[in-house]
Every structure is written in C-alpha cells, then in structure tokens.
Amino acid sequence: MNPTDHPDTVDHDIAAELCTRVAEADAAGTRLRIAGGGTKAFYGRPVAGTPLDVTAHRGVTHYDPVELVVSVRAGTPLAELERTLAAAGQHLPFEPPHFGTAATVGGMVATGLSGPRRPWSGAVRDFVLGTRLITHRGRELRFGGEVMKNVAGYDLSRLMAGAQGTLGVITEVSMKVLPLPAAAYSLSLALPLEHAMAKLAKWGRQPVPLTAAAWSDGILHLRLEGGSRSVAASRARLGGEDLDPAFWHDLREHRLPFFESTDPRPLWRLSLPHHTPPLALEGDWFLDWGGAQRWLRSDVAAPRIRDAASRAGGHATCCTPGAAEPFHPLAPAIAKYHRQLKAQLDPHGIFNPGRLYPDL
CATH 3.30.465.10 spans which residues of the chain? Predict the structure, then answer.
C-alpha cells in the first residue's frame, strides 16, 4: 500500500537538518529539549535546553496491511496514523493516549504510555519492530526491523519506548499492527472492589474475551472483543448493564470526572501486580488494567505512597504537572545501569537532560 494514497498523508523528511543540529549541539555541549506536539509535556521533569522541533519530520514511509507492519516518521500526528490504519481495518492495539490533537508518533514511543487494552494486548514497546535514531554524533542509524536488532547487548529500538528522548532523537519507528476486532461490547456490573477483583481473577482463568476492565465507585466496567459468537456468549453469561463504548476512549484520554484538573489533590499512577489487595492509602481510587494500574487522588505524602507501592511489588508516579520528582526513585543497581546506558548513548548529556531523573 502506498502511504501517499491516503488523503490525510503529509510526507516531509528533515532528517538531514536534524542530524546537523544534533552534531552542532554535541560539539558545543548545548543541551537539547526534543519537542513534539507537547501533549505529554506534563509527564516527567521539565527540561532546560534549546528546543529541537521534530514535528515537521512526518509521513508514513511504508505500510503493508498484509504483513501487519507500518513505518512512520516521528513527527507524524498520531491521529493521522490511526486514520490510515483504520482505513485498512487495522489499529494500534495498545490504545496510546493522545491528550490533545497535536500528539505525535514520536511522543507516543518516547513516553511509552498505553491505554485500557494494555494487559491483554501488550505495551508500546511490544509492538516496536525497529527505529531510526539520531545519535549524539548527529548520525541517523537504523536499529531493529530488517537490519540489526541488538547493539552491544541492548535492544535499542525497544529501549526508546519510555526513555523520554534521553537516549537520542527518534526519527522513524516501525511497528506491528493488528486487525480491528470483529465484534465488541461494553458492560457495567455493580460490585464492591473485593468482589470485582475476585471476578477478574476467575475470568482470567477462563476463555472470556476481555480487553479492558476498570473499577470505580462500586462499578466494574468491562469490554469484550473478538469473534461475534465469543462476544455474544460472554455477554449473555456476564449480564450487567450496557455501557457506552465511549467510556474507554474517555478513560484513555483522561476525560472522565475522576481525572478533572479542578481537583487540587495530586494525581498518582500506581503500577502494581494485578492481584494486589486494596492499599491502605487515603484518597479516591480508580482501577484500570484489571487492577494492575491504579489511579489515586490523595494528599498523602509522596514517601508513604511510594513505600506502599514498593511493598506491594510496584512503583508510583506522580502525574500532576510540576511535580518535583514525578518518577519512582530507582534502586541503586538499576540506577547504575541507567547511568551506564546514558553514558554510552549520550556521553555529553545533550538529549532531554533531567527529563527522567536529575542525573540522566
């Protein structure tokens, strides 16, 4: 399929210009703030540096619906890519959030954020096949895909997912895509949290075609997707009330009342084993990913929240804009590997310095 056949496609390659700017910055020791659509700027620490705008570097460079593979430049609007895929009856299974119309493919990979389907389909990094990356020397290299997968023991393509641009400038990404489900149905069940968790554990051992499960205020919200017969049989078995499928889009984009910015309490995202019992932390809770991702609105002190998450085998991220230390502190051994990786790929510290942690 020729990507330019789609009416929304814009093709613009500025890789050479970006390479020149990166090489000049590295030679001068100039710090760079990699800039895309800015819709996820709240996610991480602020970066002081010269802006390197990649939004003009855009376009779907290759799309093969039969092979379920697409390659796209980093500045391409995420909505544009999704429209191209939908026209062929396909999608990005991990449901990446946009948080605004300016969201780009590069920002999707850099933040590594996934939507409600993540536990059943996989995360962003699971669908990354390869990347083109501008190194600190200003060279554009290709990793993964059909060329080379590992360099010095690192799967560099997948390391870019969630790295927040601290390891290099993503110029292009190749991803696996999947067909849209044949049938879908959403429902709600009135259940207290403990009963909801028990039900999800039971259904997880059975052939129930779940692709989303969220709980809040005594209501368990479910989405069934798959073959028509499977969805119809599970719908009849589970019962419950009809749920507007737009609920999942609003959850993905944080447009539900729980996420309203008018609430002055910090918003926390806890990543935990899905079977973790309710944590003894005061505040309002919203559970996604079948209990593996838990949102908390609370005035409880950060150390106490992070300690509770650590004790449960997970971690906690503060998603309120302007948080001094949004990400969970790294264990010493893990921090050591992060510093070594940063030193290998960005020895002069020019790429988004401090975005993740002060010394990275």
Answer: 3-179+340-345
The whole-angstrom separation of Cα 224 and Cα 248 is 12
Query: Hey, CA dihedral for 221, 227, 232, 234, is it positive or negative?
Result: negative
Q: How far apart are CA 351 and CA 309, in angstroms?
A: 30
pLDDT tens per residue across span 46-104:
999 999 999 999 999 999 999 999 999 999 999 999 999 999 999 999 999 999 999 99
Instruction: Name the segment(s) of the chain with CATH classification 3.30.70.
Output: 183-252, 267-318
CATH, domain 267-318, list 3.30.40, 1.10.1760, 3.30.70, 3.40.30: 3.30.70
pTM attached to this predicted model: 0.92
Using CA atoms, how far apart are residues 252 and 299, in angstroms rounded to an integer?
A: 24
CATH class of 3-179+340-345: alpha beta
Give 183-252's CATH code, choosing from 3.30.70, 2.30.30, 1.25.40, 1.10.3470: 3.30.70
* pLDDT the model gives residue 19: 98
Which two structure tokens, joined as six digits, stand for 42?
Answer: 């709240």
Q: Tokens 């049938």 belong to which residue?
A: 183
SS3 labels along 203-243? HCCCCCCEEEEEEECCEEEEEEEECHHHHHHHHHHHCCEEC
Separation between Cα atoms, residue 80 and residue 127, nearest integer Å: 18
Alpha-carbon distances of 317 from 45, 54, 117, 283, rounded to whole Å: 12, 27, 20, 16
